[in-house]
């Protein structure tokens, strides 16, 4: 596995870089024989060090984790431990998911996603602002635009991906009926599931 270690406002020495690469490769290698790549960004903000980890372990499977500590080694070790816990939790399902997607390449819908500038406190709207895409009812400026994809998944696989990637929400096409669905993290810790097709409760995932 290719592991890239970067420092942000921090000089990553050889010892720390080696520690990160060895620990991550060993940890992920327990569950995947041929993981794709990983990126670790170590940064410092005031008195705290932060470690951000991204690991691509297969088609569409992204693990993300981060942690902070007063020293860089504990920050990375805590973030890596969170990755390891999720890998253990989903070990069997990840293996099954990999086999399913390898044997049956499910359709993927191309899409675009936008990042909109947060609404200001003022009620005034500047006429010269570039509007967001037509029809979305939001007057904020588009500050970023990028390509993405909407995959065909079961609800349980979608929940797994959201958990592995520490995502707040995930849109997908429900394999049961092909319609667009959304899952999201609720404030009470549970997972919300929006199924406009009305198939929820009638189809076992």
From TrEMBL:
InterPro entries hit by this protein: HPF/YfiA_ribosome-assoc (IPR050574), HPF_long/plastid (IPR034694), RHF-like (IPR036567), RHF/RaiA (IPR003489), Ribosom_S30AE_C (IPR032528), Ribosom_S30AE_C_sf (IPR038416)
Any GO MF annotation of the entry: ribosomal small subunit binding
Domain Sigma 54 modulation/S30EA ribosomal protein C-terminal residues, every copy: 140-192
One annotated GO biological process: negative regulation of translational elongation
SUPFAM superfamilies from the UniProt entry: Ribosome binding protein Y (YfiA homologue)
Assembly with partners or alone: Associates exclusively with 100S ribosomes, which are dimers of 70S ribosomes.
Pfam families: Ribosom_S30AE_C, Ribosomal_S30AE
Protein's organism: Niveispirillum cyanobacteriorum
Localisation per UniProt entry: Cytoplasm
Keywords linked to the UniProt accession: Cytoplasm, Translation regulation
Role this protein plays: Required for dimerization of active 70S ribosomes into 100S ribosomes in stationary phase; 100S ribosomes are translationally inactive and sometimes present during exponential growth.
PANTHER family, per database record: 30S RIBOSOMAL PROTEIN
An example Gene Ontology CC term for this record: cytosolic small ribosomal subunit
Name of the protein this chain belongs to: Ribosome hibernation promoting factor
NCBIfam families given in the database record: yfiA
Superkingdom: Bacteria
Family statement: Belongs to the HPF/YfiA ribosome-associated protein family. Long HPF subfamily.
